[in-house]
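[[Per-residue structure]]
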Amino acid sequence: MNVRDEQRARVIAVLANHLLATGLSQASLRQLAAAAGVSDRMLLYYFADKTEVLAQAMQSLAGGMAAKLETALPADQRLSQAALTAKAARLVVDPVFRPFMRLWVEAIAAAARGEPPFAEIARQIGEGFLVWIEARLDPAKVPDRPGAAATILALLDGLALLEVCGGEARVQSAVTALEAASLG
């Protein structure tokens, strides 16, 4: 790896952490450059434009979240739809995952408004989540794994929204209800 690639990787890591801490509200090119400790010009030396900066930082975050999810629910586990929903729901409200979920909600909202590059970022990350979920569903118990994965993702995203608009108590109550339903 050459010096430029090493600097670029460092900038991506710093900006990924910046986005987790501040969200998308502080994602102007100038703010991103300042957070990375470089000039606007240097940022554009490492990346073609702001779109590429955000896409790379968000992809880095998605990879980090995937690694945390893999530790929590290894790929060799195959679960029913209810069991996977309950386990994943508990992860979504875990303090380690909350910053990821809040940023995900922001990215989805930006995609819904048609803000570049978020439509493509949301599509790629959403597809990654669907693949991850589907791989953990037991084919013997879940005949329509793509449909079940989409349902689970919709529910998990709904929990992230519920936390924003309904508060901690409501989202914890919802997760507890999902866990109870998975046992019955």
